[in-house]
Amino acid sequence: MKALLLIFSLLGCTIQLPGQQVDILPKGKEGIYKAEFNIRGTKINGFLAVKHKRNDALHVSFTSPMGNNLLEMQWKKGRWKKIYAIKKLGSRHVYGMMAEDILLLFAHYQYDKDFVDLGNEWKWKKKTLIPTFAEDNLAAVKVVSRRHHPTKTVKYKHRHERIANLSIYHQGFPFSIVLEPLKKK
Description:
Blueprint: H1 2-14, E1 30-39, E2 42-52, E3 58-63, E4 69-76, E5 79-85, H2 87-90, H3 92-105, E6 115-117, E7 122-124, E8 127-134, E9 137-144, E10 150-159, E11 162-170, E12 175-181
Antiparallel strand pairs: 1-2, 1-12, 2-3, 3-4, 4-5, 6-7, 7-8, 8-9, 9-10, 10-11, 11-12
């Protein structure tokens, strides 16, 4: 059965519909976003800088508008390494949710060895991801947990073939991240 799923996922990867873009932050690229973290009713605003290195490492830095470092972490070899985090963002529960949400926002799970593309749904670890495409771009991803209930929704708003807004919302828990890319001049 696993062999059949593997063959099907390989076929699904090679038969991807033309024009559908899933790569939010391609390898070797970086992005700076105006960010708003809503953690249990407390809003923290700032700038989120993300760099996707060529070896599939993801380096994330969140700073306040005044330039204070609030969070810095790196995804490498399938694990997060916390470099620095303030007390509000560094607690075990909040940090774990935020770390997974960043992988979901930037669709970085597609570079993980546990990721399987089944066509109209994706499997990643013990989660089912249900993508929705609009005008050949990724518009939303619903994350379904083990209990078969949607737990998170990732939304992508596109404007002029570019992403204008990335957001993730948790169902039944006051935690969300909203990112707006800063335009390069």
